[in-house]
């Protein structure tokens, strides 16, 4: 069996795989460069001073996580790829209730192309509204009374040009994401978010090093913290790849001179079908009071609410955990339709041994899905609130975010997906993959 060193060497022996990886890296470098190019007319010195002490525990700070700091930098890619993600989520949820979208979902490749086109239109619309909101935030941002946007450049022309630049930046990111998916390696949209999160990791490590260098942290304690992080990542990988396989038997049928069917396949029901979406929904909701307070700092009602549900408080932790469990079931019900799976099995002559086709099969799948979603939702809730408890160990806030929450789940999920695609290229050309036994199971494995 090949060692890990040999495996990486084999990756660059395959011309197509090497070209795909280099192409992906080149586009991701462009993404990071664009995240540091400030919008025209912005005073960068005042901007840095104004955002230096801004809290990450607001809706804007949470948004900035997905765009790799571009929002705080007021960069041309400040909106990131999030308008596209929002448009996709809206259409996915609408697909459960809108007949026209349900029809498109059943039309195969043609229907998928139409849905992608609608997603792009939605992206332009959402990006336009968000870019207009961003200009409003920048116009009101100041440092000790000195505006970030100088009076000389304020006006309709600056607002219009900023909206166009931000919207175009999002569309350019969407195009690069699609190019990575088609000509590179991995899911382009996911990798753009992934690289934005990973970009903060070296700075988080530097914060921990400075704690050790200053004598504030014992090296033994740091080793224990790193070991804990490794165990948490291993647990996330284990649950992310966890599936409950339901056997499906297909009856034999003769077509011409060939016999089809007569084999047993499996329906893999994931323990975490909803992925990272429940945490995104839940944190977006619990951050709303803190975000509103940043706009109205003198409002006594908002101050009282924020006092009870501030980041790290008992009510904040409890509310986030309960919302995650709720949204896990909610999003799973949207993402996976047992009735549709049952109908497709029936059309193809498949059945679950001991279960009658039709409604009983749908009820059986739904029952199993409900049971395995409970531990999956509880696990998501634990992972989401882990950074809160890790901070009590003296870990810096930037490093604590990698112990759980949205950051860790996205990084692990995207890394597994990308490695699975690389593994497929290696095995297809008779090279050993990353694993000495079995296969690496990605999110689509």
From TrEMBL:
GO cellular component, one term: plasma membrane
Alphabetical list of InterPro entries matching this protein: SecY, SecY/SEC61-alpha, SecY_CS, SecY_dom_sf
Membrane topology note: Multi-pass membrane protein
PROSITE patterns: SECY_2
Gene3D superfamilies, A to Z: SecY subunit domain
Bilayer-spanning residue ranges: 21-39, 74-101, 121-141, 156-176, 188-206, 218-239, 275-296, 308-336, 372-393, 399-419
Protein's UniProt keywords contain Transmembrane: yes
Subcellular location: Cell membrane; Membrane
Keywords of this entry: Cell membrane, Membrane, Protein transport, Translocation, Transmembrane, Transmembrane helix, Transport
GO biological process: intracellular protein transmembrane transport; protein targeting; protein transport by the Sec complex
SUPFAM superfamilies, alphabetized: Preprotein translocase SecY subunit
Function description: The central subunit of the protein translocation channel SecYEG. Consists of two halves formed by TMs 1-5 and 6-10. These two domains form a lateral gate at the front which open onto the bilayer between TMs 2 and 7, and are clamped together by SecE at the back. The channel is closed by both a pore ring composed of hydrophobic SecY resides and a short helix (helix 2A) on the extracellular side of the membrane which forms a plug. The plug probably moves laterally to allow the channel to open. The ring and the pore may move independently.
Assembly behavior: Component of the Sec protein translocase complex. Heterotrimer consisting of SecY, SecE and SecG subunits. The heterotrimers can form oligomers, although 1 heterotrimer is thought to be able to translocate proteins. Interacts with the ribosome. Interacts with SecDF, and other proteins may be involved. Interacts with SecA.
Family listed: Belongs to the SecY/SEC61-alpha family.
Protein name as it appears in the record: Protein translocase subunit SecY
Source organism phylogeny: Bacteria, Pseudomonadati, Ignavibacteriota, Ignavibacteria, Ignavibacteriales
């Amino acid at each position: 069996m090949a060692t890990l060193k040999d495996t990486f060497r084999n990756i660059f022996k395959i011309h197509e795989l090497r070209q795909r990886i280099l192409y992906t890296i080149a586009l991701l470098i462009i993404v990071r460069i664009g995240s540091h190019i400030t919008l025209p007319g912005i005073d960068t010195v005042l901007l840095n001073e104004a955002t230096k002490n801004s809290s990450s525990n607001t809706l804007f700070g949470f948004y900035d996580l997905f765009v790799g700091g571009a929002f705080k930098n007021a960069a041309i890619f400040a909106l990131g790829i999030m308008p596209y993600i929002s448009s996709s989520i809206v259409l996915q949820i609408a697909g459960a209730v809108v007949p026209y979208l349900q029809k498109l979902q059943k039309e195969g490749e043609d229907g998928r192309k139409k849905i992608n086109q609608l997603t792009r239109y939605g992206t332009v619309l959402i990006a336009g509204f968000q870019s207009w909101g961003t200009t409003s935030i920048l116009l009101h941002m100041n440092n000790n009374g000195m505006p970030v946007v100088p009076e000389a450049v304020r006006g309709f022309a600056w607002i219009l040009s900023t909206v166009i630049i931000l919207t175009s930046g999002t569309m350019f990111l969407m195009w690069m994401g699609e190019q990575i998916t088609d000509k590179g390696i991995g899911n382009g949209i996911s990798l753009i978010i992934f690289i934005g999160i990973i970009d903060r990791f070296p700075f988080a490590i530097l914060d921990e090093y400075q704690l050790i260098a200053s004598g504030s942290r014992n090296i033994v304690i740091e080793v224990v913290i790193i070991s804990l992080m490794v165990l948490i990542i291993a647990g996330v990988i284990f649950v992310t790849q966890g599936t409950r396989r339901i056997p499906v038997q297909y009856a034999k049928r003769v077509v011409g001179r060939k016999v089809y069917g007569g084999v047993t396949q499996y329906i893999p029901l994931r323990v975490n079908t909803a992925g990272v979406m429940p945490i995104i929904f839940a944190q977006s909701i619990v951050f709303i009071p803190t975000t509103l307070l940043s706009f109205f700092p003198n409002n006594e009602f908002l101050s009282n609410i924020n006092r009870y549900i501030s980041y790290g408080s008992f009510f904040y932790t409890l509310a986030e955990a309960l919302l995650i469990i709720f949204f896990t079931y909610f999003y799973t019900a949207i993402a996976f339709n047992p009735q549709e799976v049952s109908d497709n099995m029936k059309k193809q002559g498949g059945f679950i041994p001991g279960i009658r086709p039709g409604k009983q099969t749908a009820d059986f799948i739904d029952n199993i899905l409900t049971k395995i979603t409970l531990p999956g939702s509880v696990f998501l809730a634990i992972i989401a609130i882990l950074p809160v408890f890790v901070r009590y160990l003296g870990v810096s806030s930037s490093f604590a975010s990698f112990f759980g929450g949205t950051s860790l789940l996205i990084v692990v999920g995207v890394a597994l997906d990308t490695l699975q695609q690389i593994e497929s290229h290696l095995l297809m050309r008779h090279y050993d993959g990353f694993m000495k036994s079995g296969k690496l199971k990605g999110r689509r494995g």
